[in-house]
Each structure stands twice: as structure tokens, then as C-alpha cells.
Amino acid sequence: MKTKEKTVAVGPQTQRLKPERVQDGLAARKTLQRIKARERLAAMPGWKLDPGGRAIGKVRAFADPQHAAAYAAFAVQLAAGRRQALRLTLVQDRLIVTLHGRTGHGITGTLLALAADLG
Description:
The protein has about 120 residues and is an alpha+beta fold. It is about 45% helix and about 30% strand. It contains three helices and six strands. The termini are far apart. The model has no long low-confidence stretch (mean pLDDT about 80).
């Protein structure tokens, strides 16, 4: 099996990178993205990462069921407009909002932006 090399221009010279070096760079970038996502999530009050790392959630308490219904309608419209998966669970006076990352993408900036807009 033939391996592909990536060519990178460095000033007037061209340097060939071996496939394992390219993979190392991608792994480092993904790790950095995960760290940034976790830092951003930590700055958002109430939002928590699920144990599997594929979704984030927040529990919201409402004094009135009508307020919970209005918020749920708002959340559904906002998520649908951004084509993001959303799960709402009503337990007594609490609404549990769960946002799921797209398969293979995990927690993205788009998902975190939706969470921030949902409050």
C-alpha cells in the first residue's frame, strides 16, 4: 500500500511531511478544539457536559407550566432553525434541555452558540 505525503511550502523551500506527522498535527488540533470547547462550556452557567462527551444539558426551573411551555417552544424553534438536535424533558416544575452534537463532530462551536442563546 502506497502512503501519501503532504507537501508544505515553507518560504522559498518546499518540505514534504510524512503521513504520521500530518496525523499528529490533526490530533493536536482536535485536542485543542476540545479544550477550547470545555473552557467555553465552563463559562456558561448551568450547562454541563454529559458523561459520554457527546451532549450538553441544563436544568431550568419554572414557577408556572405555561412559562415552561413557552420556553420549550422557543428552544425548539431556535434549535430547528440551526438544524441542531434538541431533547426536552419536563419533570414536575423543571425542564431539562439537552443538546446533542452531530455524529462525528462532538461538541462544536455552533452547538455552544445555541446553548448560549438558550441561556
